[in-house]
Design goal:
Structural class: alpha/beta
Number of strands: 9
Order of helices and strands: HEHEHEEHEHEEEHHEHHHHHHHHHH
Bound molecules: adenosine-5'-triphosphate, magnesium ion
Number of helices: 17
Helix content: 40-55%
Radius of gyration: 25 Å
CATH class of the largest domain: Alpha Beta
Strand content: 5-15%
Shape: flat
Strand order of the largest sheet: 2-5-8-1-9
CATH superfamily of the largest domain: P-loop containing nucleotide triphosphate hydrolases
Largest sheet: 5 strands, parallel
């Protein structure tokens, strides 16, 4: 049985409304959002509400398989199509015929397969690997990703034409920290679910203080993380322990803290934690342990700006070089700097390929 889409926030109510409207149109849908926000739950809801719910819901994770395997999983193959193809196998496109094909983590699909996918979506036809036979397919394609596909298109790692094919209807699920009203009903739903799943374990529900804390935590792992906490509470029955173990260091938490004004309203974090997040960033560039006089002497916005920008530049250059297997010419094109500038910066920042 699929999970119901729990939530009372404006954004979830809007999504529920959209699901009802879209379910029978079979227009391609692209679902976006951070990890654990419920992209698969939304895909399942679209399917359940549609007339295709009596047919198959077929999921394929485009990030989990290497290119050749992903291709054979999607389109199927004939016996002998490649080494190891001992017998003919239908692909997901065929299994999903008249139903739904859920392309999870579409942002990770290799470029070569993106072109083939575009062709199949345009023509509705495909051939299994090693076969001359053309199959006509009628699938409703729902895709999901936690990548920013606009950025991927700018970097040329995602095809623009495929993006527009998939993104006919866009469903953007906000992170849980931006829809805190959903936290109490989600807690209630998972408490009930786990009470019946683990009848011997009787963790107590949160009282109002605990609930306020749970609502103010930024949940970098979103609903999945909240769900796991409730499961843990059923077994440990100690909110204190659960709070102790909640991660406080996470890039999403840091940016949330910096954007939140801790003076306004209650926060899961104290002002101390907030200033910690800020001082952690500053302390990378200035020695905060010195006396105020010395500290103020050391602080120069111009100097810090240079140090911070050098640090980010170095990381970005190393990141791109690693991604392209240290192909400097490709990296310079991606970074939109000249080859010569890249070499100069690699030397300046001491970015070198790993020694084999
Ligand atoms: N609105 C919701 N109501 C009920 N359960 C939810 C909701 N959103 C998420 N969940 C639960 O949280 C977990 C994560 O959801 P899901 O797998 O759909 O997230 P996702 O966005 O696909 O994450 P990922 O990007 O990591 O694949 C699942 O166990 C799901 O049942
Ligand atoms: Mg998912």
């Amino acid at each position: 049985m699929s999970t119901p889409l729990i939530g009372v926030s404006k954004s979830i109510l809007k999504i529920k409304e959209l699901i009802k409207h879209v379910a029978n149109t079979c227009l391609n849908v692209l679902i976006t959002g951070e990890t654990g926000v419920g992209k698969e739950v939304v895909a399942q809801s679209l399917y359940s509400e549609s007339a295709r719910s009596s047919k198959n819901f077929v999921k394929i994770n485009c990030a989990a398989l290497p290119e050749t395997l992903l291709e054979s999983e999607l389109y199927g193959y004939e016996k002998g199509a490649f080494t190891g193809a001992h017998k003919k196998r239908p692909g997901k496109f065929l299994t999903a015929d008249k139903g739904v094909l859920f392309l999870d983590e579409i942002g990770d699909m290799p470029l070569a397969l993106q072109s083939k996918m575009l062709h199949v979506l345009q023509s509705g036809e495909f051939s299994p690997l090693g076969s001359d036979q053309e199959f006509k397919t009628d699938v409703w394609v729902i895709a999901a990703t936690n990548h920013n596909l606009e950025e991927s298109m700018a970097k040329k790692t995602f095809r623009e034409d495929l993006f527009y094919r998939l993104n006919i209807i866009k469903i953007e699920i906000p992170p849980l920290r931006k829809r805190k009203e959903d936290i109490p009903p989600l807690i209630e739903y998972y408490f009930r679910l786990y009470k019946s799943e683990y009848p011997d374990n009787q963790g107590s529900r949160p009282d109002s203080d605990v609930l306020a804390k749970l609502c103010n935590y930024p949940w970098p792992g979103n609903v999945r993380q909240l769900q796991n906490c409730i499961k843990k509470q059923m077994i440990l029955n100690s909110w204190e322990k659960i709070f102790e173990e909640l991660p406080k260091e996470h890039p999403k938490i840091a940016s949330h803290l910096l954007n939140e004004n801790p003076q306004n309203g209650s926060s899961y974090y104290t002002n101390n934690d907030f200033s910690n997040a800020r001082t952690r960033i500053i302390s990378e560039f200035v020695d905060l342990s010195t006396s105020s006089d010395k500290l103020f002497e050391d602080i120069s916005l111009k100097k810090i700006k240079k140090l911070a920008s050098d640090k980010v530049e170095k990381e970005v250059i190393a990141f791109v070089l690693e991604k392209v297997g240290w192909n400097r010419s490709r990296a310079s094109k991606i970074l939109k700097i000249s080859y010569k500038t890249l070499l100069y910066k690699m030397n300046e920042f001491e970015v070198h390929p790993p020694v084999k």
